[in-house]
Each structure stands twice: as C-alpha cells, then as structure tokens.
Amino acid sequence: MTDETKALTNTVLAVVLIAVVLVMGIYINSTIELAVDADNTAGAAVNESITPTDAGVNLAAASLRNGACGTVTYVGNGTIGPEISSGNYTITGCSVVNTTSEFTDTAWVISYPYTYSADTAASNASADAVTALGNGTPWLTIVVVIAFAVIVLGFLLSGFKGANASEGQLTY
C-alpha cells in the first residue's frame, strides 16, 4: 500500500468516525431529553372551548407530550351555559364525540384534569444539544464531498504518475 493510499484510507476512516460519533451524540442526547422530563405533571383545563362533532374532536391536553385526560368535571353549552348531560357525548382518551343533534349549533366548554410530561431545565438543555448537533451536519456533508474528491484526484494523479514513469521505458 502506497503512502498516498494510506493517507486516503485514513481520511475516509476519520470522516466515518466523525459521522458515527455525531449520530451517537444525537441519539444519547435525545434519550436523555425524554428521561429527565417530569412525568405525570398534573394540570387542569377549565372551560376549554371546543366545537364537538360526531367524528370527534381532541381536547388541548392531547397535544401535550404524553398527555392523558382525566374524568370530565363539567361540559356546558355555549359560554358556560347550561350543563350538557353525559348522555349527549362520549369521551375516549382525550377525544370528545357529540352523540346528539341537540347541541350542534354552539361551542361547548369543558373542564377536566390531565397529566403530561413537562419539560425541565435538563430536558430543555438536551433538546437544545440535539438541535445544535442536527443543525451542524451540513458541514459534515461538505467534508465528505471534499474527502471523496481528494480520493478521486489522488487515484488520477497516481495513475498519471505511473503512466508517465513507464512512458520513457522501451517495451519489446
């Protein structure tokens, strides 16, 4: 193996090693982010406005990380109007389905407890690190392209060098 080939091999291995370390760092930080959040943080929605349909509508707590809705404490028609009895709707998880045609013209207000996984300072720091590492990958692409260009040019130059050396010799 020539010195040029060894140098090119070392360059390729260094680029691969950098990529592997970068991917491992992103994976570890994203795992830490989920491990250090505050699970089962309690909250309560009071008079959340929804427009229920027969297909169902998700409550706001459903969009929280690991959001889980508790038992509904109040459902009212309009802006805190008369209470709607539980026979007029069904709730599965955080989805409310209107099961009647009686209360279809106005928004409902609904109150319920919920739990979710809240961010902590440590989980925010891990998320920021993942974002920073994820945004730093364009330079890695440039390094890979340059490394492969060097490899190709190295092979071309060594081929020309070999052709040039045999050019002066006579073959019989």
Account of the 3D structure:
- By secondary structure, the chain is of the alpha+beta class.
- The chain has 2 domains: 76 residues; 80 residues, no CATH class.
- Helices cover 45% and strands 23% of the residues.
- It has 3 helices and 7 strands, in the order H-E-E-E-E-E-E-E-H-H.
- The strands form 2 sheets. Strands 1, 3, 4 and 7 form a 4-stranded antiparallel β-sheet that branches.
- Strand 5 and strand 6 form a beta hairpin.
- Helix 1 packs antiparallel against helix 2.
- The longest helix is centred in the first third of the chain and has 33 residues.
- It is elongated and about 90 Å long.
- The mean pLDDT is 80.
